């Protein structure tokens, strides 16, 4: 049974991945208020990327995902989506690929039900979990950031091999 986080979300076409959140799990107040805005030109087809499990891929993934947003959405969602992408791809490389550069990280981005959903998949079989590192720890806060920024997120095993982490960001408007 996958770990579940926050309200149900639609499956990504072709992946069988969906995002949910467990009852009783409440997110603290967001760091900043979101403004309402109209959503133009939403692509209806999910976007896919395959990147090598190498630290240089974090920047490439962040750039690819944020540049895929409609230009009018970039000021409102770009920073948060970029941070989600960076944290999830970093975790996939560190924990899912075990440092093997020949492994690939898969990213899928799609809009549905008022959210932009990002699935980051790796070949690892581990189950990411929220950690609460001490004040002196130099790492271990990635999923805490994801939990704070994302409207919803979840961890799922892939149908063949590996793990997917899916996170969604809400936006106002059509799509």
Give a brief description.
The chain is built from 3 helices and 5 strands, in the order E-H-H-E-E-H-E-E. It has helices at 56-68, 74-96, 142-149; strands at residues 47-52, 104-112, 115-122, 152-157, 163-170.
Describe this entry's structure for a reader.
The chain is an alpha+beta fold. The chain has a single domain, classed as Histidine kinase-like ATPase, C-terminal domain (Heat Shock Protein 90), CATH 3.30.565. It is built from 3 helices and 5 strands; from the N terminus they run βααββαββ. The chain has helices at residues 56-68, 74-96, 142-149; strands at residues 47-52, 104-112, 115-122, 152-157, 163-170. Strands 1-2-3-5-4 form a 5-stranded antiparallel β-sheet, with helices on one face. The radius of gyration is 15 Å and the shape is globular.
